[in-house]
Amino acid sequence: MQRGFHPPCEAMIRVVLPAFRSLVAKRLAANYGLPQTEIARLLGITQPSISFYLSSKRGKWMEVLEENPRIRELADRFAMALAQGNLSPEEGEAYLCQACLAFRESPELRGISALT
């Protein structure tokens, strides 16, 4: 049986974005001591989502992304910019686009698309 076509964008939305948010949320909590409500506000998601991310109930691919040096650096820089409060919405979107590009360009991450 042939599987349908799944573009990389689908994997980005369903897998990579939650995992990347989890990386950033964990950095904001651990490195900057921000409470869950503030992390949720900064990331534009709900506090319960942050709770799930911090308890590793969401973002199960976080470990896979953490192993990618480019994505790890993006998560570090994104968390720092959010914590410092000097990030425009356009700059925040640019970080997510860079994470998507890193995902699409990494041979070790391409297998995620097949799992969505």
Written description of the protein model:
This protein is mostly helical and about 120 residues long. It has one domain. It contains seven helices and no strands. The radius of gyration is 14 Å and the shape is globular. The two termini are about 15 Å apart. The model has no long low-confidence stretch (mean pLDDT about 80).
Blueprint (SSEs and pairs):
Layout: H1 8-32, H2 36-43, H3 47-54, H4 62-66, H5 69-84, H6 89-105, H7 111-115
Helix pairs in contact: 1-2, 1-5, 1-6, 2-3, 5-6
Keywords for this structure?
116 residues; mainly alpha; globular
In short:
The chain has seven helices and no strands.
Give the fraction of residues assigned to helices. Answer: over 70%
Our measurement of the CA-to-CA distance between the termini, rounded to an integer number of angstroms, reads: 16 Å
Spans with pLDDT under 50 lasting ≥5 residues? none
Kindly give the count of domains: 1
Average pLDDT metric: 82
Topology order in helix (H) and strand (E) letters: HHHHHHH
Q: Main sheet? A: none
Strand content: under 5%
Shape: globular
The gyration radius over C-alpha positions equals: 14 Å
Q: Work out the helix count.
A: 7
Structural class: mainly alpha
What is the number of beta strands?
A: 0
